[in-house]
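$ ./design --mode recover --in tokens.txt
reading tokens...
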């Protein structure tokens, strides 16, 4: 069977390219953060909890654009490591509020220089224009808008 030349344009598919790029970026962060005992998803989870404070699992899933089931599994692993504590919501005893622990904060802060080095290297590879486009497609600053903080001062280093 011969390839249909009219389908050649699909080799430039943005969906596939973005998925491949996301996996490549994740591998870079995972490889570097492994030296700190973290995966990229765990680093992001700890950063989100540090910045946003205790949130319901639903709110946290929305902030991270994560599936609730996957987030629940990641929270359980983080809790086993002592990075996160699941507290009972005082307004709804059925609900649990994940919060970063002191150990989680220390782990996050110790990993920050490693994360920052990978972030800067990848920003250099992507360039300012592609980075701005990526952030725009993601809907702005990742995790949540940080009220009261200037969005331009740390925009390039926001994961």
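writing sequence...
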């Amino acid at each position: 069977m011969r390839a249909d030349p009219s389908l050649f344009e699909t080799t430039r598919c943005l969906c596939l390219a973005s998925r491949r790029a996301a996996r490549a970026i994740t591998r870079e962060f995972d490889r570097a953060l492994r030296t700190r005992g973290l995966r990229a998803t765990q680093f992001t989870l700890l950063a989100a909890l540090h910045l946003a404070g205790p949130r319901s699992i639903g709110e946290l899933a929305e902030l991270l654009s994560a599936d609730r089931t996957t987030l629940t599994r990641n929270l359980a692993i983080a809790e086993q490591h002592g990075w996160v504590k699941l507290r009972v919501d005082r307004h709804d005893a059925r609900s649990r509020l994940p919060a970063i622990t002191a150990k989680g904060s220390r782990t996050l802060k110790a990993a920050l220089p490693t994360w920052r080095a990978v972030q800067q290297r990848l920003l250099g590879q992507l360039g300012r224009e592609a980075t701005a486009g990526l952030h725009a497609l993601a809907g702005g600053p990742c995790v949540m808008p940080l009220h009261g903080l200037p969005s331009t001062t740390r925009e390039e280093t926001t994961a």
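exit 0
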